[in-house]
């Protein structure tokens, strides 16, 4: 015990600045650790929200992304995910508010461009939806589901030639699109179209 006290006294005599610096470093380390825990916490909830979204559990997605937002009110990714899930869950107007908020917080989040395109699509604003799919493709020209999204918009608008042109582009990027197009309502009226049948490989 005396040895410990002597060491403390010696450090004080050699320079009190050492003690002050140690305290400052400790404070900085503590703050950094708290920030790291906060970031880790919000990231965990964003990951959980993504997993819930991919499994179709929209209520869980909204719950987890809301927790992430409560931890960090500027979490653009959490707003984007919550907005998409909220729209899929039936409240499209509220979902659009969240995805717009995500864009305000992070205008470079390409994943949010896609989410905004989908929310506008759910709302029936097809031209706005197409513009956001196009913004995705400006950054990621081979984004399969944005290309396919544009194909479905043209199909819904009755522009058959462009619909099939964009569908062909999507299939070239990812042949799994064939099975999706063959099943979705967007292309139901195309089932007797020869070019469509050739594209999806149906008879």
The percentage helix is: over 70%
What structural class should be given to the helix and strand makeup? mainly alpha
**CATH fold label of the largest domain:** Serine Threonine Protein Phosphatase 5, Tetratricopeptide repeat
CATH class label of the largest domain: Mainly Alpha
Q: What is the percentage of strand-forming residues?
A: under 5%
Q: What is the overall number of helices?
A: 11
Give the assembly state of these chains.
Answer: single chain
- Give the end-to-end Cα distance, rounded to a whole number of Å: 90 Å
pLDDT < 50 stretches: 1-41
The Rg value, from CA coordinates, equals 26 Å
Number of strands: 0
Order of helices and strands: HHHHHHHHHHH
SSE inventory with pairings:
Blueprint: H1 2-14, H2 16-54, H3 58-71, H4 76-88, H5 92-105, H6 110-122, H7 126-139, H8 144-156, H9 160-173, H10 177-183, H11 194-200
Explain briefly what this protein structure is.
This protein is an all-alpha fold and 203 residues long.
Please explain how this structure is put together:
Helix 1 packs across helix 2 and helix 3 packs antiparallel against helix 4. The chain has eleven helices and no strands. The protein has 203 residues and is mostly helical. Helix content is 79%, strand content 0%. The protein is elongated and about 55 Å long. The longest helix is centred in the N-terminal third of the chain and has 39 residues, at 16-54.
Jot down its keywords.
single chain; mainly alpha; 2 domains; elongated; disordered N terminus
């Amino acid at each position: 015990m005396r040895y410990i006290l002597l060491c403390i006294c010696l450090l004080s005599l050699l320079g009190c600045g050492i003690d002050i610096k140690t305290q400052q470093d400790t404070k900085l380390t503590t703050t950094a650790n708290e920030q790291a825990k906060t970031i880790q916490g919000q990231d965990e909830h964003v990951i959980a929200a993504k997993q819930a979204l991919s499994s179709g559990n929209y209520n869980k997605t909204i719950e987890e992304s809301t927790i992430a937002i409560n931890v960090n009110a500027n979490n653009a990714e959490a707003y984007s995910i919550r907005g998409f899930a909220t729209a899929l869950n039936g409240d499209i107007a509220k979902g659009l508010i969240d995805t717009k908020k995500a864009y305000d917080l992070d205008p470079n989040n390409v994943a949010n461009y896609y989410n905004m395109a989908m929310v506008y699509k759910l709302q029936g604003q097809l031209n706005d939806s197409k513009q956001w799919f196009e913004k995705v493709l400006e950054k990621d020209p081979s984004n399969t589901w944005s290309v396919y999204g544009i194909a479905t918009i043209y199909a819904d608008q009755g522009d058959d030639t462009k619909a099939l042109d964009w569908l062909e582009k999507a299939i070239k990027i990812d042949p799994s699109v064939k099975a999706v197009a063959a099943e979705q309502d967007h292309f139901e009226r195309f089932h007797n179209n020869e070019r469509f049948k050739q594209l999806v490989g149906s008879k």
